[in-house]
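quick one, 458 residues, struct below
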Amino acid sequence: MRLPVFLLLLTMVFAASNSMGASKGEEEHQKIIDSGQIYDDPELQAYINRIGQSLVANSDKPKGKFTFTVLDSGVINAFAAPNGFIYVSRGLLPFMDSEEELAGVIGHEIGHVTGNHHGRRGRADITSKIVATTAYILTGSGDLAEASTMYGAELISGFGRDMELEADGLGAEYMYKTGYDPQALLEVIGVLKDQEQFQRVKARATGKPAGTYHGLYASHPRNDKRLQTVIRKAGELDLDEYVESPEQAGEFRRHIEGLVWGESVQGQREENRYYHSKLAFTFEHPEGWSVKSSSKAVVASSADGRTSLTITLRRKDSSKTPESVLKSSASGDFSEAAALEQAGLQGYCAIASSNGVAKRLAVIDYNYTYLLQGESADFAANDPVLLEIIKSFRPTHPKEKQAGTPRYIHYIQVPRGATFASIASSIRIPYAEDQLRLLNGMYPRGEPRTGDWIKVIR
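---
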């Protein structure tokens, strides 16, 4: 698995110097996209972007262009690149308990950009070497030991104490102006300090070096007077009017529920086949076609754009058959209707014709009810292609996800008498109890109360 190595080197690249310029930042961002490092969850990506853009609007660069991206990495990290590219690793998200805490992480990284910390750090002399190293990692060769030995651990040590403190102050200010409680930033840093403590304990046991999140300080936030002072000042700013928190009840939990834990599940995949990681479905498409995913639909299109298949979904109603759903959601005359049975899934397809326009329609029941609509400028010639795509729709196979068992974050209510140790006994991962404690803010000690909602790994 090369992704954590790639992420570490990417941090080195982007922290190097502002001399990379806008074009270089965009070029490196495109490399991330092209190499499949983006976490495949459009709704989560949109959620992170909404939080980020709301903070930017209340920053020192409200008109600045910022791009927020969730990386498909189990590494606990977030970092800012020059020119407003900000990245949050999937692995960091489960350790947050609220949108406010997540806003604290993002606000801190925005502060690095608005504070021009990349330019002030002055690493222009090594930028070209680090860019070359990133390309080296992207090819799949090399490892962390080689990379860190070649260019030195100081390249990944963050921006230094004063700049980190400034980023916290700026981030807290942006949070307050947006309607978030800046005290949540202290909670975030406390969570990350707990993670650092765990890494040190584990390192002593294994004899390996311990890592750290780049924004952490030597002391715990509850004991850091300078940190407490800059965050308190943010909460004392005079605003012209009261700003209501943008956080919506239940939204943060909804995005964390079902989040991939640990290793990526986006590996071992065939060419000319699209995979949706969160919804766990896949379909085959002709060579040269492209697939775009958004929070509303997945659209597969031919190279010339004249033929396409659009997939949307709705909650499954057990009282309705795929046939009844198709006929109630479409209009026109139906022909070539047939039941579908593929990979254990039940469905129904037909051609619907209206006003001289024909479309290939299908409904397939899986974890949701999926509605597929195919259309083409030359429907007669391309309907067989659309039908083949529809018939290739199936659940994602475990072998297409990863070696071993994929794991996800879920929320449960604590049963009577349960402890972290008893809950962890059924979770087959190393340091299961410690991981549960870290996920729920109770490391290294403490027990949940009966009926409390906690995060577990399954």
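The radius of gyration is 24 Å.
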